Amino acid sequence: DIVMTQSPDSLAVSVGERATINCKSSQSVLYSSNNKNYLAWYQQKPGQPPKLLIYWASTRESGVPDRFSGSGSGTDFTLTISSLQAEDVAVYYCQQYFNSPPTFGQGTKLEIK
Amino acid sequence: QLQLQESGPGLVKPSETLSLTCTVSGDSISSSSYYWDWIRQPPGKGLEWIGSIYYSGSTSYNPSLKSRVTISVDTSKNQFSLKMSSVTAADTAIYYCAKKGDYLRPDDYWGQGTLVTVSS
Fold this sequence. Notes:
The structure holds two protein chains of two kinds.
Chain A: E1 4-7, E2 10-13, E3 19-25, E4 30-31, E5 36-37, E6 39-44, E7 51-55, E8 59-60, E9 68-73, E10 76-81, E11 90-96, E12 103-104, E13 108-112
Parallel strand pairs in A: 2-13
Antiparallel strand pairs in A: 1-3, 3-10, 4-5, 6-7, 6-11, 7-8, 9-10, 11-12, 11-13
Chain B: E1 3-7, E2 11-12, E3 18-25, E4 35-41, E5 48-54, E6 59-61, E7 69-74, E8 79-84, E9 93-100, E10 107-110, E11 114-118
Parallel strand pairs in B: 2-11
Antiparallel strand pairs in B: 1-3, 3-8, 4-5, 4-9, 5-6, 7-8, 9-10, 9-11
């Protein structure tokens, strides 16, 4: 299985400031034939299911605010929230879907400072 | 708007079989290319993919659970189901059903989840 490791485990950022979450995979999730990274980011608020934010490492899901962006390739990826809003408090997960079984990072808890 | 809803017992005894059903509304479970997943989350912990099914009945399971898990589909009822045998307290979790657009894709629609507690 591909192991996904996120850092940090928790993060406190002031409203309006930038938040950055990192995700590293134990092997590359870049498929050379289509040059796509099989990496997604989810947001999970308390008592709710995960919500897909970003797929193909950098493509925002429909309706996701543009303050959320994803970057990276191969084994190293980043989720950036450019200007944190109070409603962004949540746990964020990365997921690889390069091969089966799809696997998730352990999660990063984002709080307001 | 696609919606998924999990249903089933919230309490299962150790060594027994956990059974859950996911009812899909707003689209046909037989829609081409969609795959249907079960994913679980122990309270306060991370996410674990359990397995997938295609409307044809083709399945894929997490090797860590494969010996205990069966996923099936009933296209006439627009439902798919999960059975997990020989459960222990370690199987206590919120169980989610979800949909993805193809086999190697992220899950873009999720049910609200149902908590299953394994306890005598």
